[in-house]
Amino acid sequence: MKPPVVELTFPIAVMRLVLAMLCGLVIGYGRSRKARDAVLPTYMIVTLGAAMSVMFSLYQYQMMSGPWKEVVQRVGVKFDASRMAALTVTGIGFLGAGIIIKTDHKQVRGLTTATGLFATVCLGVAAGLGFYDCLIIAMVMCTMVLNLMGPLESAIKRRLRNITMFVVYSDTDDIGTITQVIEDMNAQIMDIDVVRDPAIEEETDSAVFTLRLSRKNHSHSAMLSSIAELSCVREVQELVF
Hints:
Elements: H1 10-33, H2 40-64, H3 69-75, H4 83-99, E1 101-102, E2 108-109, H5 111-129, H6 132-158, E3 162-169, H7 174-184, E4 188-195, E5 205-212, H8 220-228, E6 233-238
Antiparallel strand pairs: 1-2, 3-5, 3-6, 4-5
Helix pairs in contact: 1-2, 1-5, 1-6, 2-4, 2-5, 4-5, 5-6
């Protein structure tokens, strides 16, 4: 099939850069509404830079097979037009690695943001190459996944029998009281990890409880409410990974 655009002219270059920037705008807008680390300008610049890198390769190839053809043949220069796109996709890994962090309570943050940036780079590459069919479909699918799958995943996890809770309590002896409430609700304690959070007052202790709820009573909110009602508990929250 003959490509829709053969020559990289100025109007075509502007159109591809605008399309790349709009893809970053669409995806970045959804992420910025959720107050993520990489907000709207980051996504737009990433897609714009990816499109520029690919168009730079296309421009070199166009010049080396046209006005610079005689010089290229005389010198014997070899050129791979796909190398710049490969380096661009690889380079985004360093940016993504800086976004992914391990926070307190064994939680990992920034993984979805990093993968979103990787997807926007690929969208920018598609825009720079003029692969418009793939660009539009991929942009719609990425937007749907980033904006719709998050709440759906959280809803599914809250219906599972496994639950992980972070509990702040007054004294170490209070663990027995907490475990007694858990056992009264017929839940199985899989693991208890006592942690020390510098942000929490020194006179309190904290722990991460990994539980498996019973089949008859697998309500996450009921378990959290029962633990929160204890006088020795200062704070309780569910950790959703």
